[in-house]
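Researcher: Excuse me, tokens okay?
***
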Amino acid sequence: MKPALLPLILDSVPQPVWVVDPEGLILYTNPAAVAVLGYDDGAQLDGRPSHETLHPFRPDGSPYPASQCAMLTPSTTGQAAQGDDEWFMRRDGSFFPASWWAAPIHLPDGRGVVYSFFDVTERRAYEQAVRERDAAEIRAAESRAAQRRIVESVTAVHRQTARDLHDGAQQRLVNLMIGLRLAREYLSDAPPDALALLDQSVEDAQAAIDELRQLAAGIHPSVLTMRGLWAAIAALAASCPIPVVVTGACERRLPAVLEANAYYLVAEALTNAVKHAHASRIDIVVRLGTELELIVADDGVGGVPQIAAGSGVAGLHDRVAAFDGTLTIESPPGGGTRMIARIPVSS
């Protein structure tokens, strides 16, 4: 390559390049470096000390002696050097982060150094954005995992409580009622007032058993455990004070915690519709493929906010998010409300 071509090439490349002599004084600065550092012409830099021009002190104002500058080492070691954690000073005194490469260069009066560097402000901003995004994703994943653990724990407590009520208090009440009925038969010749008292006690025991069964079913319905999500939703619809039509299919059993979560999701949506929608009909659609899709739609007044802290809608969002699902609420004023939940399921 002809020597005259080298300055032409260096002047045209977009990467900042400059050369310093064995004393660390600037011999050459290409236009890209002049522009990055905020000068008007390379002549303004010629002959100046390289280290003091780039970073006479650190960004925090502390001294930065040239003896500690790694960029100058190639002139003494003869080895290339590189750094990603430097800050260079512009002409106006402002600093910018830079990555640099330095290599020894043999000059007529000794060994100098040729530098190439980049302003990495945008790269660092991008890396920071990526780190913040990753951190946000990690926090979101941890939050979902925590929500799922809470749902799993609550479901387990509900099932155990319902089982304890059935096997404990309910069984004792059944035994009590049987004993009262036997006592009624053995004491058939007792005074009428005593017999009436026994009859009332039998009725009270039966009422207590019925109420306890309803309480246990509200905590964790046995139909959900025995027959699965579809049967539980159908039973839930049958007990609703508003006419409910259930369509779709759920042809296989799902993990117990997922079935319980889906059941209570529908139950909460029905409760919201009954309490707030002033609806005359509710439709429930259940579809099961690669995801469980649950739709609860009413013909009520609509106007439900998408989400509000502490609201029933926020609870629905939390339930779905705990299983990496999505929840959509369509509720135009006067147009009814349609809740669409989609929850991934394993095949």
